[in-house]
Amino acid sequence: YDDKPCPRQILLSTAVEDQMLLAEALSTRAGYKVTVSAPQRGEKKDLTGHALQNAREALGRRLSETSTQTRLLSGFAETFKLEKIPTRIEVYDNSHIMGTNAVGAMIVAGPEGFVKNQYRKFNIRSTTITPGDDFGMMREVMERRFSRLLKDEEDGAPQPGAADSDIDSFPAWPDVILIDGGQGQMSAVRQILADLGISDRVVAIGVAKGQDRDAGRERFFCAGRESFTLPVRDPVLYFVQRLRDEAHRFAIGSHRARRKKEMIRNPLDEIAGIGPTRKRALLLHFGTAKAVSRAAMSDLRAVEGVSEAVAKVIYDHFHEK
């Protein structure tokens, strides 16, 4: 209870030494009386019995899940001919609407399953990427991800705690990176890794959706071998689908959060005469407030609900600054 409120009564399944001293210490820390006891009979004994049984079952489930995850990772290594069983798999995906509010996402999986406290989002910063340029977005994400790791190594700094404006930390080097894409996407990623000089440090695998985008028909792309598919009921295929779906879910969620933030707080709120309706129309038309600030008068007038007078107010607001 170092960082959590302490209950006034604590029941133990087994008595411990210095029970009174423990109760006194907890009471002092909490600022009120805390009792600690190990009931031997009655309703309280039943409560500790149920709690102990629940703990045993939860531990059993966790051990079973870990065992299953270990088997899946072993099968993954065998399927993709890896030198060792991976302990850190990073999966990348992008999400955007016509290039606006673009977000790159990275999820992490390992022996314990999904490691959600190491998920990262990358707000795409480049102003030269054209709408829908997934290759350009992936390049920015890869460069930011691995340039930071390389810099930390060069500086001799510990990897945990390395910071980026969108990224709290970049813990360890991945054994494998999984990319949502086919041969073109994989070629771009391999080139990025080569440019960074880390082709021999990270295994890259591409996953392309099958015909008609059907799950179960995915095609895999790895360096040094022909693309291939897996049997529909292969556990490794299900595992990869789960990884890809989780990355997609996280990417979409991050994109929606960024878009919502853009809709709620942006420079358009500072313009007199631009209420919620016109702001929404402008953002739907241009995508971002930055695009509105760069728009010509003729483009502004093309937006529904924006008259010539309003267009001039908007144009003057940004260009006078």
- Tell me the strand percentage band: 5-15%
**Which H/E pattern describes the elements?**
EHEHEEEEHEHEEHHHHH
**Silhouette:** extended
Q: Into how many domains do the coordinates divide?
A: 3
Describe this protein's structure.
The protein has 321 residues and is of the alpha/beta class. The protein is extended. Helix 3 (134-155) runs parallel beside helix 4. The strands form two sheets. Strands 3, 4, 5, 6, 7, 8 and 9 form a seven-stranded mixed β-sheet that branches. A two-stranded parallel ribbon has the order 1-2. Strand 4 and strand 5 form a beta hairpin. It folds into three domains: 9-79, no CATH class; 89-257, 2-Layer Sandwich (Nucleotidyltransferase, domain 5); 265-320, Orthogonal Bundle (DNA polymerase, domain 1). It has helices spanning 19-30, 42-79, 134-155, 183-196, 235-264, 276-286, 289-294, 297-301, 308-320, and strands at residues 9-11, 35-37, 89-97, 100-110, 113-114, 120-123, 176-180, 203-208, 219-222. Helix content is 47%, strand content 15%. It is built from nine helices and nine strands. The longest helix is centred in the first third of the chain and has 38 residues, at 42-79.
